[in-house]
Amino acid sequence: MARYIDSVCAQCRREGEKLFLKGERCFSQKCAYEKRSYPPGQHGRQGQFRQKVSDYGVQLREKQKMRRLYGVFERQFRRYFRLAQRQKGLTGVNMLIILESRLDNVVYRLGLASSRAQARQLISHGHFEVSGRKTNIPSFLVSIGDTLTIRENSKKSVYFKDVAKNLDEGRVPAWLNLDEKNLSARILSLPTRDQIDITLNEQLIVEFYSR
What we know:
Blueprint: H1 9-15, H2 32-35, H3 44-47, H4 55-70, H5 74-86, H6 91-100, H7 103-109, H8 116-124, E1 128-130, E2 133-134, E3 147-150, H9 152-155, H10 158-166, E4 176-179, E5 184-187, H11 202-209
Antiparallel strand pairs: 1-2, 1-3, 3-5, 4-5
Helix pairs in contact: 4-11, 5-6, 6-11, 7-8
């Protein structure tokens, strides 16, 4: 499986906003974006003063921002777009729903990981079961009615004991139901656009791929 191994803080700087890719570090004084909010690279400081951006450039930046938020590479991202096109409704919203349905995002939304990257690592290490089956594929798409549980052996680990103490059911989106006591969750429905707290214009991404 391909992995992004460069600085994720550079991705925030390139998009010109915090993407919260490093979890708790993004809320601390160690956040690199707070120190250097201009784009990375040799001409980063000069580049931040360029005002004119083409329609293509605006669409590209929106597409890259969505990819980086969810930690998806280009080939898989295009596949999600084609899948969204075949579904009823708005393609951009369909794509967001697909990305939200990824197992790594669900684990992150439940508060079982501080970032989607950490969620991918936990899943890859085999800590979770979906509807009773061990699942170690971060891109697995959950469905309505699926149950997510932490494996019994994993619950004994120091990490998950600490997670259990800090879970906040109030921060879990309405389309998910969290059982704090048993460290399990249920997929009640697929999210609506209003329930996805991502500040981007998904229509620009549809326009980018429809050129």
